[in-house]
């Protein structure tokens, strides 16, 4: 089994086919989308392929250690995940092909008008071993 991260982006990926921002959806459209996501995760729980997933709040802050005392905090000017990543799901599957299949299915979650979004999802494998440096 191999673990993959599926990232849902706010922007930065190519535009979805049904490219209407979620804040323009009706409450019923948002409910249908969340239900699709929940049903998808429940089905993967049944097959043992679901590890975890979360939608992310748009709030966020950069923090860094800067010695003793209060750490510096900023809201930019970096490209921030709160502007880029809407949520994520971790899956544990038998093959890369299965990961592609599930990512494509998740991309079809309904959006505005109840039509599938056909959004681009970023599929990233977990690093299974630390890189070896040889010189």
From TrEMBL:
InterPro entries found in the cross-reference section: Dimeric_a/b-barrel, YCII
Q: Which SUPFAM superfamilies match?
A: Dimeric alpha+beta barrel (SSF54909)
* Annotated YCII-related domain residues: 17-108
Per the record, the domain of life is: Bacteria
The record ties this protein, via PANTHER family, to: BLL7171 PROTEIN, BLL7171 PROTEIN-RELATED
Assigned protein family: Belongs to the YciI family.
Q: What name goes with this protein?
A: YciI family protein
Q: What organism is this sequence from?
A: Nonomuraea ferruginea
